[in-house]
């Protein structure tokens, strides 16, 4: 059976002399792994179209026990990622987030769009990379069903108070009168988190937050992802090993 779907390559494993096994985030089938025959043969048309972060229209043959890439109509290669180790490291982290959290063998349109949008913004330098990271972490977690209870104070239902507290482990928000646990959180960060989770999908990157609050937002979204997904992100460890000093602007 032949399947046609938009997809982006998020991981590559070489297999034997000339084949490779690519992990795809696809619109129609979510995360799937598919073989590319003769991928290392320079003449193979599939060669460049199945590099890391290649996005295109994939025609995939579904055999009984595996998928095989038949053809790829390349749409976007994200070349700007290749010459920049920091952007590449961040993109690989985004890819791993998708690998761990996107559905398998079912529609993953939102996940694919989120990854594509984040890579576009990363390549174009239109947004601070750390802000893109915070959006990818929190929105993906929300899509995967890990939703912090960020709308109101968990105890009294108040939506806002001068000082609020957020417990990243329980995902609960408290006003200043009800706080029993959690860390102080700026109201603007609460508002940004609500926006990232609940805004219409096509506007998820269209919010503004002052530069000095980006680290606070990033710390929360990253910890929320690590604690609640219970996954180990080797790509994040690599990103952190680069010790990027000024990644916010
Ligand atoms: Zn309260």
Task: Write a compact overview of the structure shown.
The chain is α+β, with helices and mostly antiparallel strands. It has helices at 46-49, 85-101, 109-124, 129-143, 187-198, 214-229, 234-241; strands at residues 2-15, 19-26, 30-36, 55-62, 67-76, 164-167, 172-175, 183-185.
Q: What are the SSEs and their pairings?
A:
Layout: E1 2-15, E2 19-26, E3 30-36, H1 46-49, E4 55-62, E5 67-76, H2 85-101, H3 109-124, H4 129-143, E6 164-167, E7 172-175, E8 183-185, H5 187-198, H6 214-229, H7 234-241
Parallel strand pairs: 3-5
Antiparallel strand pairs: 1-2, 1-4, 2-3, 4-5, 6-7, 6-8
The structure holds zinc ion.
Residues 153, 155-156, 158, 174-175, 177-178 line the site of zinc ion.
Overview of this protein structure:
By secondary structure, the protein is an alpha+beta fold. The protein folds into 2 domains: 2-76, Nucleic acid-binding proteins (OB fold (Dihydrolipoamide Acetyltransferase, E2P), Beta Barrel); 79-148 and 180-241, Recombination protein O, C-terminal domain (de novo design (two linked rop proteins), Up-down Bundle). Helices cover 35% and strands 23% of the residues. It has helices spanning 46-49, 85-101, 109-124, 129-143, 187-198, 214-229, 234-241, and strands at residues 2-15, 19-26, 30-36, 55-62, 67-76, 164-167, 172-175, 183-185. A 5-stranded mixed beta barrel has the order 1-2-3-5-4. β4 (55-62) and β5 (67-76) form a beta hairpin. It is elongated.
